[in-house]
Amino acid sequence: MDYYDEIKKIAYEIFEREGMVHGRHFDHWIEAETIVKTRYKNKDKTGQNNTETLKPKKKAAAKTVTKKSEAKPKKAVKTAAKPKIKKTS
Question: Which residues contact 63 (CB under 8 A, 6 or more apart)?
Fold first, then answer.
């Protein structure tokens, strides 16, 4: 597996772990890139890939996203009434 594919795989695993919330792909990619770089760095030093100590950290549960249709409706804003003009004859 090459460097890019390994980052892609780990980024997807992070995406799944965080509840598959869309819009955080860049954060997942950067975190995966850091993990892979650290693995390769440690592999160069020891000659082995020490994946046990480099597992991604668990983060707090992702916020749930509500659909617009499920969101509470906003109250209507009242506008000032136009003054009535009296007709004079």
Answer: 21
The set of residues, in sequence order, having a beta carbon less than 8 Å from that of 1 and lying 6+ positions away, is: 9
pLDDT digits (tens, 9 = 90+) for 11-21: 999 999 999 98
* DSSP string of 9-63, one letter each residue: HHHHHHHHHTT--TT-HHHHHHHHHHHHHHHHHHHHHHSS---GGGPPPP-PPPP
Q: In terms of C-beta distances under 8 Å and separation of at least 24 residues, what long-range contacts does 40-46 make, across chains too?
A: 40/3
C-alpha distances out from residue 67 to 16, 17, 45, 71, 73, Å: 20, 21, 49, 6, 12
| Cβ atoms of 67 and 23 closer than 8 Å | no
pTM higher than 0.90 for the full model? no
- Tokens found for residue 26: 């860049």
